[in-house]
Amino acid sequence: MTGGHITPAMATIEELLARFPDWEIVFIGRSQAIEGQRAQAEEQRLITGMGLRFVPLVTGRLKREGGIGALFSLLKFPVGLVQSVAIVTRERPSMIISFGGYVALPVVLVAWVLRIPVVTHEQTTRPGLANRIISRFATRVCISFPESNKELGLAGKVEVTGLPLRQQVLHPPKKNPFPVTLSRPLLLFLGGSTGSVSVNEKVYEALPNLLTRYTIIHQVGKISAQAALTKRDVLPDDMQKHYLPYPYLSSEEYSYALHHASLIVGRSGANTVTEIAIAGKVAVCIPLPWSANNEQYYNAKFLKDAGSGVILEQKNLTAVSLVDVINRTISELKTREASARELSKKIPRDCAARFVNVIAKEIFPQPS
Q1: Could you tell me the pTM of the whole model?
Q2: How far apart are CA 259 and CA 263, in angstroms?
Q3: Which H helix or E strand runs over 229?
Q4: Which stretches of 76-211 are DSSP H helices?
Q5: pLDDT at residue 356, as a whole number
Q6: CATH code, residues 6-165+349-363
Q7: Which terminus of the chain faces fewer neighbouring Cβ atoms within 10 Å, N or C?
Q8: pLDDT digit string (tens) for 44-63?
Q9: Every domain of the chain and the residues it spans
Q10: What's the mean pLDDT in 135-139?
Q11: Whole-angstrom Cα distance, residue 223 to residue 162?
């Protein structure tokens, strides 16, 4: 298994181990949270925490934009290919399961050369460059949204399975794992698996205003963890207890916060948007402006079109605009929550099982 989207991978692992406990799963992934920085990637911690072997891979992104950074990144790609050859030939897998992104690309190419079947999953409505290439070499392509097939143009080997979701997200814990009673409306700020430094900075500026009304759980990412604690420590005592910053939320913490939040604010990756939708929640989305193929904007638009989401573009993001849009959305909460509940009814809950069905059919092909 390989790829940059860890939460659907974890959901798939849960389903695989439940149905095929004798299968051995090895995960090939990045060891750094952000290319060129030393912070450990969360997937390594999460995968090893599930009792699986994690094999680190160093490779480069394929970037459409130019510049010296893109060149240096591209020069790492041959390194990734050589490492992938070594890893795949050593592990001798029956199948490669890809969750896309630049980490998965060299692994999939090596699998194709060695005639190892590849099943890949595309989470977003608008696939990025790496995933478009991966899809060409994959045996089967599974997608979350039907409109992704228009982007890929791969009639015959594409199947709509939906997005695999972790069981704990679908079934939140009853006990509050946080050291505060949720007596106020809860805001859950999410910056993606690595945290969003640019969004975090505006949140810090807005804290004195927001903490007069709300309790805030803030997933800041490892890079911003110390900065968030510093910001908290200078707040008045009555505000400090209502601001809970975390480098990363455990599955239990995330699920509880997701299902008990009045409003979710943050980036709009496909996994986050789908989990917000299935929980029947209202969100303020701040799409990552440089996401591949502008995918985060279109993910956010999915919630906006349903009436449960508001889009605040990063070019318009200030502490003042953030507070304003949060307060306005909270004032509209009753109407938006009704839309969110309707959207939740339309999101399938068995997507991990559907995806594993495709995997099993490739490993155990039925006689024609």
Answers
A1: 0.87
A2: 10
A3: helix 225-233
A4: 77-91, 104-113, 129-137, 148-152, 167-170, 197-210
A5: 97
A6: 3.40.50.2000
A7: C
A8: 888 999 999 999 998 876 65
A9: 6-165+349-363, 169-345
A10: 94
A11: 32
